Amino acid sequence: MLKKTTAILLTMLLIGSLVGCSQSTKDNSASVVSEQSLILSGDTTTESASGAENPFSSQQENDTSSTAPAESGRNANGFNPDGTSNGTSDNGNANGFKKNRGNRMTDENGNFTQPQMPTDENGNANGNMTPPQMPTDDNGNFTPPQMPTDENGNFTRPDMPTDGNFNGNNNAGSTTAAKATADTLDASDLFSKRDLEQTADTTDAKTIQAANGKTETITEAGVYVLSGTAQNFTVRIEADKEAKVQLVLDGLNVTNENFPVIYVVSADKVFVTTTNSENNLSVTGTFTADGDTNTDAVIFSKDDIVFNGTGSLTITSAQGNGISGKDDIKFTGGTYNITSKLDSVEANDSIAVYAGNFTINSSKDAFHSEDGDDDTTGYVYMLDGTFNIKASSDSIQATTLVQIDGGTFTLTSSEGIEATYVRINGGTINITASDDGINAAYKSRSYTTPTIEINDGNLTIVMGQGDTDAIDANGNIVVNGGTINITAQMSSFDYDGTAQYNGGTIIINGQQVDSIPQSMMGGRGGMGGGMRGRF
After folding, report:
1. Of the given ranges (21-35, 232-246, 411-425), which has the lowest mean pLDDT?
2. Residue 269 β-bridge partners
């Protein structure tokens, strides 16, 4: 009986001891969890030891993936409540981390590995983490990043860089809204009365005789008559921004080795007017720079320049451009024979032709209008004139718009006419091309969609062999009138968007058609949607 009683008492004592131990463990665990929760979550206004607001407190509060139940007197990461490491977790893994806790980083053995934190220049030899550098003012206070706003303080979306093929592509810094249709250019808005005058008033003109190795500098507005024959002779115009300078070429013949014959540094506008005479200007070598200015043409102008007159001007550029203008170039009369290694006539802002006779032989483009820093400028407008062009690349190229209202064109080149928007309102245009006859491509964000619009005129296009397109739009084609006569072995029309045939006559390989043809063959070039057509 005594032995039985003793056994019962020992059993009760053992049960009591186990219950007490379990309760103690629970209390200790709860205390650790509570303390750990305070450490990890905290309030967003908790200050660091230095008294500054902790910029990471809100991040820790929302980072639920970093918290886990504490076990056996350790917090979730295997550390003691006082911050010291226990060395291992319950399962004995190094660094005190447990295996496979949810979606965590592990090593090849499945053990949780601590994420790499930014360190100081000593590589955290003391285990101190260096937080990311935050933007601060001169007093060390955190400053939020500045957001782009308009003049009214409203948030504006930053311009995004594009590859030039995105519909409605943007350049940084521009707020120009893209248009579906190009504005129609009007000659009355483009040419002044003096632009159209073909003879100069020489009553008070000054006379300049060309001389070998001489630079004649013009600094004042006025009319200057140039004549004579010389080598390495340059007329340099460096006048006030309000000054209008007129150069009258009266039998001027100059051959330079490496510098422009006419060099406009500054002026409001310069007129180059030919008398009833022949004038020949040429540069035989590679152009040399003038300080930061890369002079690259026989006639080089940083400001507006107008060509007119009743005589002829022959320009030969063995290694560069024939005429370069950093603003607008205009022709209103005269006869021009241009041979160039690069572009024959090149302008940043625009090329506008009111009238004139042009014979051009270019190893690059004949007429080229483009500003490399701004794709909303660079157009070509032609009202009238006679054009006989042979070009290795394009006969007429512009970044934004090519508009032809009239004239007679014989164009032989890789591509006849190219721009983002091509509008033909009239004229007789004959194109022989080895790539595209007329091409509308993504060059400018000014227009939502590259478009070829034909309203009138007589257009004849003969295409070479190979993968060629007579009329190629990386967007839309609209035919409202005129006569289009195409000879093409491969493709007459190629478009990525839509094609509208509202009027006019279309003849393809001798056969008149009643719609702009489209084929299941698809087509090449350009991005975009919609039904593509080739015939």
Report:
1. 21-35
2. 244, 304
